[in-house]
Amino acid sequence: TSGLIHSSTELIWIATRGHQPLFLERRKDYTVSPSTANKRGSISEKVERIRFLTLNCWGLPDVLTSLFISRNSKPTRTERFEAIGKCIINYDIICLQEVWLKEDQENLKKIAHANGIQFCHVFTSGLIHSSGLMILSRYPLDSIHFHRYRVNGQAPRVDHGDWHAGKGIGVARCLVNDQIIYIFTTHLIAQYSKKNDEYFIDRLAQAWELASLVQMTTAHVKDHLVLVMGDMNFEPDSLEYEVFTEVARVWDLWEDDENSGKISGTFSEIEDGRPVNKRIDYIFSNQPSNFQLESVDRAAFDDDVPLKYSDHAGISANFRVGNISTPKIFKLKPPQLVGGVGGAFNLMLPGIETAAKRRLWHVIRGCICILVIIVLQILGIRIADSTFRITNLLIDAMWIVAAVELTIGILIVGNDVSSLSQMREEMRFHLTSIDFMTSPSHARR
After folding, report:
1. How far apart are alpha carbons 257 and 297 in whole angstroms?
2. Contact, 39 vs 308, CB < 8 A?
3. In order along the chain (445 residues), what is the average pLDDT of each group of 10 residues?
4. Angle, in degrees to the nearest 10, between helices 340-380 and 414-437
5. Which of 23, 192, 249, 432 is buried most deeply by CB count within 10 Å?
6. Cα–Cα distance between 406 and 409 in angstroms, integer?
């Protein structure tokens, strides 16, 4: 019947870190309302082309964005999200980052639903109950999953906020005609300083974790489309890029598109007093036989208007659906033992040592607080009553500081040390398997 897809119940497995396997059940049916049945991309139609978009929306509250821009010359967050909502309706599957606030999430859903994009999901995580990731689709999403990054910044750095947001990887499986599309969307930890990139190891670990999840959950997929979209916060010449593309075995559509040279970048920042354009937003893909890439473009909606929608430009990609007689063949670099994962493996040990030192200092500061408390308790017996009350307040404050320092050092930074150590062993295993597969003795078999 029109507007209804029925499929048998299917269980799929997605690996999760440190937990039991997660089984997701495919929904048995999807109902499309009459108001959206005649919209472009209705699931009752035979789809020929699909338009994808990824965009970092810069959804910080106005009180924070006003610290970086002039409120007199730029629109408010609400105005920007209204403009973004009017633009994303021109696409079929949209992955958004930095949609932090419930108000913006609901407004985008309302605009999307009114224009035939009725499948929406917000990936919640972290202390603020939002990872910032959101996916909107004209086509049914029959399975979703969220994987939180094991290493993600520092809890004391509230001015950065990556740890508090609980960044991770949103995974969705989308049904289009009789085809399946696997979508991974993410937002890696930011680079706050190019000269002193304190989160380089965190981002390298996240690139490895993302690549491993993509490879392990879609390695068997041959005819279905696999897309990885989002704000990666690394550039094409970086080690993080090498690690990700090598392990995930996906292609950077921008690099392989014949018109990609016209794209200048997706993010601009000031370095040494001059603006520098960087490409840190991406769409990666596999090479399915039933999908053909038609174009990749820089989706900077505000190039010709005075309203600046975001501090990022988006990336869009158009795919043709159906059996392709002469599919485009992407270039793929062979696995590297020196660069790529090999280089990351060598750098992980200094990163582990740095995290271990940070853990030690948190524990030392906590122990010092406890020693100060003991001294104050002893001295408190011999001082006047008025001073004793002040001493008690100081002791209470010291207990709080000691508890915070020991919690951060033992539980949070301690988890970083063990997670980095585990990922280093995963890289060692990856390199050992490559070495075995490329050895002459194995080749003769």
Report:
1. 9
2. no
3. 35 35 36 41 65 94 68 73 92 97 95 96 91 96 96 92 94 91 97 90 98 91 91 95 93 71 74 84 90 84 64 92 65 57 94 97 96 82 61 85 96 96 95 68 50
4. 160
5. 249
6. 5
